[in-house]
Write the structure tokens for this entry.
Amino acid sequence: MRVRARRDGAGAAGGARAAGDDAGVSTIEVVILAPLIIMFILVLVAFGQLVDGRGAVDGAARDAARAGSIQRDRSVAMEQAKTTARGDLDGVCAGTPDVTAIGDTSFRPDSLFTIQVTCKVRGLDFLGLPITKTVTSTATSPLDPFRRAVAD
């Protein structure tokens, strides 16, 4: 006994369909959906860049505060904090990050050294789209209470 498939499109449900009614539909679906999928992926990449940039700015602020807090005077501490933050954020920021000292700026032993780092994080800059987001982070590191410091 031989079983043959019907070529007219009639299936088990009995619905007959003319061959070629859906010709080109999958091509149209791809043409419509492909740009939407690509845009969705680019949005995910941009958010990933933002999250990565936020983490980098947080880390740079922490490292800058620590690098500055182990120096002996405020001017050297600020230079060291700026150098550290710029080194950490190389390639992350569009431009140079802004590093400022906030709070108590006396630089006395047993006080706190607080640094604020502001950076314009690149979004889709690698695609030629100049989309940036300004991210600011603050970190504090204590100064050693038993060391001699030079106040300026």
Observations:
- The helical segments are 25-69, 74-88.
- The beta strands are 98-102, 112-122, 132-142.
